[in-house]
Amino acid sequence: MADIVSVTLGSMGEKARSWIANGRYETMDEVVLEGLREIERREALFDAKLKAMVEESLADPGPGIPLEEAFERIRATPIR
User: Fold this and answer.
1) What are the Cα distances from residue 46, in Å, to 11, 35, 65, 66, 79?
2) Residue 53: pLDDT above 80?
3) What 8-state DSSP symbol labels residue 9?
4) Which of 24, 49, 77, 78 is the Cys-Cys partner for 19 at CB 3.0 to 4.6 Å?
């Protein structure tokens, strides 16, 4: 069963309607689902990058770094 959700898109609503009018998407549902898929994709990439960084850190025999510095490095890593 599909979830029914009401959202306010603000100025992005105009953009979404133009994509539908131009044939890029058929429905507003498709636009919203594409956005959710993109969020899911970015989160998966971030999780993979974080896991790789943790594994790299655990394999490094050198001295550790302070926790705050570790978080600064994570925040500075671009999400692609």
Assistant:
1) 28, 17, 21, 21, 6
2) yes
3) -
4) 24
Question: How many Å apart are CA 70 and CA 76, to the nearest integer?
Answer: 10
Q: How far apart are the first and last CA of the chain?
A: 33
**Residue for token pair 């490095």:** 73
Q: Are 47 and 53 in contact (CB under 8 A)?
A: no
**pTM tops 0.70:** no
Sign of CA dihedral 30, 32, 38, 44: negative
Numbers of helices and strands, H then E, in the chain: 3, 0
Alpha carbon 30 to chain centroid, angstroms: 18
Query: How many CB atoms lie under 10 A from the CB of residue 28?
Result: 15
Helices 11-21 and 28-59: angle between axes, nearest 10 degrees: 110
